[in-house]
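Thread: quick sanity check before group meeting

JM: Hey all, I'm pulling together slides for Thursday and realized we never actually wrote out the predicted structure for the chain we discussed last week. Dropping the sequence here so it's in one place. If anyone has concerns about the input, flag it before I start.
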Amino acid sequence: MPSCSGCGVHKGQPFWGDCKLYGCTRDHEVEHCGLCTEFPCDQFVNQYDPEHGQRSAFTRAGLLLYRKKAGTEKYRKMVKKLKEEHKSQGL
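JM (edit): ok, ran it. Output follows.
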């Protein structure tokens, strides 16, 4: 389960290193990648937490599409729920 809370929260500095996507969202003047007209792009799928592997980029893509459709509030609730499920499963 990817643990990034989003570009805006971390100001482009998640715990695992420098996020190149943060600058890209600023350049495209969008709140998050899911709102970009080029999403998902090669840069997005190649930026991921090494602990979780590239597969996590595709999980994030799905979550960002949900965020775009449902809104940030519902997205945050869903991420919280997924993290709780993840912990309860001992993953």
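AS: nice. The chain has a mean pLDDT of 84. The radius of gyration is 13 Å.
JM: adding both to the slides.
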